[in-house]
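Page 37, continued from 36.
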């Protein structure tokens, strides 16, 4: 596979030319420990996993000052295995999950509320029109800090449609931030993957989540 460092530098430059300060999360869910270590050696400081098993495997073998992002659907019964080992959760999408986090987290957890902007049945997430009420309902949960919103673009090659979805998430994020809720500063926007991170950056992403285009994919590590 390609060396990670030059790819990381290219993507960093590409994003910096759009807007400085965008955080790149290397999604390592499809690669093993060695490749993850290579990502860290290349200077990557944010890593993303979408399964408790993958996260545990990497935490066991990797000891470095990096931030771990949990980006996948999180089953309620898995919360206890995950929440105290991560820095960010990108998939807060229901009240029952919030309740379990409140019960299990030892300190406040930085969470992104996942929004189903494209309203696809196959996607999880809160509907846009319900997002503000959902976030308001988290006021009493002192273990949950809503740092931002997250979405996944629809699975399409229609870049105009993808752009519309990202614009809507950004506008919603700014709307929540304007409420200035103590538990929900909501200053961040997690959107953009390998195929659409440029569009996401142009539309105001502060975190992009890049897997295959950055660290590749090793089928045996799945
Ligand atoms: C897998 C995944 C990514 C990265 O996808 P790539 O297309 O490989 O860049 C980003 N976000 C989420 C939520 C994912 O599950």
């Amino acid at each position: 596979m390609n060396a990670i460092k030059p790819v990381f530098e290219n993507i960093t430059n590409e994003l910096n030319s759009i807007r400085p300060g965008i955080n790149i999360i290397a999604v390592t869910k499809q690669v093993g420990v060695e490749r993850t270590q290579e990502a860290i050696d290349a200077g990557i400081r944010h890593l993303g996993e979408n399964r408790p098993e993958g996260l545990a495997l990497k935490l066991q073998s990797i000891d470095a000052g990096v931030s771990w992002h949990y980006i996948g659907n999180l089953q309620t019964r898995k919360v206890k295995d995950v929440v105290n080992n991560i820095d960010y959760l990108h998939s807060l999408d229901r009240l029952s999950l919030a309740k379990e986090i409140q019960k299990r987290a030892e300190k406040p957890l930085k969470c992104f509320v996942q929004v189903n902007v494209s309203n696809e049945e196959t996607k999880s997430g809160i509907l846009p029109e319900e997002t503000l009420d959902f976030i308001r309902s988290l006021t009493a949960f002192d273990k949950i800090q809503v740092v931002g919103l997250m979405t996944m673009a629809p699975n399409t090659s229609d870049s105009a449609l993808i752009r519309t979805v990202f614009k809507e998430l950004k506008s919603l994020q700014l709307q929540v931030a304007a409420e200035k809720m103590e538990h929900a500063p909501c200053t961040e926007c997690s959107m953009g993957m390998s195929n659409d991170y440029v569009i996401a950056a142009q539309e105001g992403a502060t975190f992009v989540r890049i897997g295959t285009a950055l660290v590749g994919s090793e089928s045996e590590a799945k």
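Strands lie at 23-27, 46-49, 67-70, 88-92, 109-114, 144-150, 188-190, 207-210. Flag for discussion at group meeting. The pocket of pyridoxal-5'-phosphate is lined by residues 27, 29, 50, 71-72, 152, 193-194, 209-213 (CB under 6 Å).
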